[in-house]
Amino acid sequence: MRFFSLTARFALLAFVIAGIGILGISAYSYQDAGALLHQQSIERMAGELLRLSGRFQENIDRMRRDVQRIATSGPVIGYHRAVAGGGYDDERNMTQALWKQRLAIDFKLLMEQRQDYLQVRYIGIADRGREIVRVERVDSNIIVVPGEDLQRKGQRGYVRKTIHLQPSQQYLSRVELNKEHDSVVFPLQPVMRVAAPIHTKSGTVFGVVVINADFNALASPFDSPPANVSFIMADQKGDYLLHSDKDRQFSHALGGSPGLEKDYSTFKQMLRFHEGYEFQDLAEQSASLIETHLRYNPLDQTQQIMIAALVSHEVINKLSQGYGRRLTFGVVITVFLISIGMALLARRLTRPINQLTIAADRIAKGDEVNIPAIGRRDELGQMANAFQTMLNHLHATQRELEHLATHDALTGLYNRKALENRIEEELQRAARYNRDLSVFLLDIDHFKSINDTYGHLSGDKVLQFLAKILETSIRKTDYVARYGGEEFIVVLPETPLQEAMGLAERLRSSIAEHSVPLETDKKIKLTASIGVAAFPVHGQSWQNLLGAADAAMYAAKNAGRDQIKTP
Hints:
With 567 residues, the chain is α+β, with helices and mostly antiparallel strands. The longest helix is centred in the N-terminal third of the chain and has 66 residues, at 6-71. Strands 3, 4, 5, 6, 7, 10 and 11 form a seven-stranded antiparallel sheet that branches. Strands 13-12-16-15-14 form a five-stranded antiparallel sheet. It contains 16 helices and 23 strands. α1 packs parallel to α10 and α2 runs antiparallel to α3. 33% of the residues are buried. It has a domain at 416-565: Reverse transcriptase/Diguanylate cyclase domain (Alpha-Beta Plaits, 2-Layer Sandwich). It is elongated. The N and C termini lie far apart (89 Å).
């Protein structure tokens, strides 16, 4: 019996060559896929972190609006009139006692609506800051505190600071642990306090309105993290305000060291304020830490909270491993079929096999090639076609991953990473050849209201609709990207500021003329605020240029929206 005939040896050689070539492609594709999946996971989680941070800020802003509304409400002003009138309000024919009852009712109604509110108080300036009305939550009940239990709060820091504020300003505390008689109450109850001054018609301060809210309820957007993700929040000292391990929270407030300082050697850098988000890979934890900062008090920029997501690499590794298994299985099957075909048709396949081997070697080096045409309809032709189909699928998969890394999944526009790379190239070109360059920063007006009124799916439809308007409105030389949330960036190479302003006005007008149709037969009227900045007058780096456009866009917002502004 003969072993290892020329055909068998040729088949073995063909198996080795084809296997090496295809495995080279597989290894190259697997490595790229792993990196792209990792980056995509980071960007997706960063976007979610910023979205949840926005919802947290909305909860705080809601407190500020509520306390301001109460401070200027009719019952509060009526009570002052009654006090000034010796116990009777001639304007509304109400006694001082009746106004107090009305205030208590209003406070209770507010607390029924706001389950995160723990206490609402009306504190007068007279009698060393004695409370006039206090309504608080005890377990599941809302009670009006009787007069004999009302306290004097005039020496409290938040009262003394609030009475010096302007009528439109509000005091906002840091996150604090609830105390009774200057001692921390257990179980721990973290609170945030907001207060507003009550001014008379003559401009004097009559009292303050104070709302105490449950911080854990305010931070409820972070209650349900995705699988293999945990959220943390820390104050400016590094004390944990939110942590998956409840025992790690408020260690510094209880006399220990800040939790962030214990856990991260880079905690000082993590506490330094920055816009957007930053991330770092933690090899020892096999995870990535994505963090952002929130300055929640417009009157005190030192009051900030670090919000972070700890993302386990387990999800990314599982995706990569699944992709690798499918790739390996496909490679093994393909190589096995190729070797059998080579063994059966060795004499006829010598020349075509050499061609396929050369092509496989080029593919292993990363070259873009097509399988040479065999010109047969037999098994060899089928094998070559199967090889080409597999290669096409691999190329298509790689192109799709590359597209996902540079494009926004919702709108199909370029994403922030692709924008930063492109605008850097355009700025270098403009500087080298002394050319003009302008950018738009466009933000949809009242987008939060659209989400709140019609739902986030309708909000997504609005973003997609606006993306189509942008794509059809810009020139072929321009570049449009979704910058984040409801913000879009348009880069206009070789375009001076005045021309850019004209283009921005046409774009603004076009947006205002459109309405987004919904499935409910309703239509959403759109407007946008646009900030326009030009190189080099408003900035010579892309960061400064976008910062100038961002400032101009907010100026348009503050001027009434549906406008165009330049820095």
